[in-house]
Amino acid sequence: MNNSNVLLELFYSVILPVPRLAGVFFGFIYFSKQNIPAVVKTGIVISISLSLVPYIYADIDISEINDPVSLVSINFKEIILGIVMGVIFTIPFQILNLSGSLFDAFKGAQLPYSGAFLSGGEGTATSSLLGYYIVILMFTSGYFLEVIQYVLLSYKVWPIIDFYPVYDQSDISITFILLNELFSIAVLITAPVIIISILVDVCTLVIAKQLPQLNPTMLVMPVKAIIISGFMILLINKVDFIEYMDFDYYSTLVRKIIT
User: Global pTM?
Assistant: First the structure.
């Protein structure tokens, strides 16, 4: 092998891990554009990609990517794969975001949608609050390190130069399991608040039937919001969200997907 091929393989070993890592952080809600400067995200991606250079260099075959079409196809595949992985890793965030939206919907919040700092898009006030809570859990429970671990493992399971991973047909059902867990756990977290909201609505209906001139629906709205918000504080204080979301369970599902 001549020196030019060695330098070319080393060059590919440095740049080829970047698209997948960039896709992961692009799909990861917490690392959206509004939250972290591009310089910081670029530094994270480059730091992780440099740690992969020895492994990629030992596995790469320059003869398989000697034309521009193959190189572009590989980069496109890596970006799509990274985005999909990033979206999967944000399922716990989506659970609490959906729970916060349900909180505000059932307490009758007016115009609840506003800028959500963590998601970089729209969200309710409660979903933003719970978003901060899940970020704290992410860094204190080691979930972020789990994300990095599985991203690195994905390069072994699905090498850069391979267009198809090794998987069986049963792995496809994991996607539907994740979607089912997303909605079921979100409803489970908000179930007590939903019950209280329904009870308040029933009491309001009884009052409205007896004293319609008072317009009790508008009068009860602030009280309803205070009761549900106070109960939500108790829920955060007493309920172990890690038990509900079970980071180990989601880590197992992610491991099944990429292995």
Answer: 0.66
67: tokens are 């034309």
- Rounded to whole angstroms, how far apart are CA atoms 137 and 116? 18
Q: Cα dihedral angle (37, 39, 42, 47), rounded to 10 degrees?
A: -120
Rounded Cα distance between 149 and 22, Å, is 15
Q: In the predicted model, what is the mean pLDDT of the chain?
A: 71
DSSP state of 144: H
List the Cα angle 121/134/115 in 5-degree steps. Answer: 20
- pLDDT (tens digit per residue) in 193-218: 777 777 877 887 787 777 777 777 77
- 156: phi then psi, degrees, rounded to nearest 5: -80, -40
Encoded tokens for 228: 């549900």
How many Å apart are CA 141 and CA 135, to the nearest integer? 10
Q: State pLDDT tens for residues 247-258.
A: 455 455 545 544
Point out which residues pair with 115 in neighbouring strands. 122
Spatial separation of the C-alpha atoms in residues 183 and 188, rounded to whole Å:
9
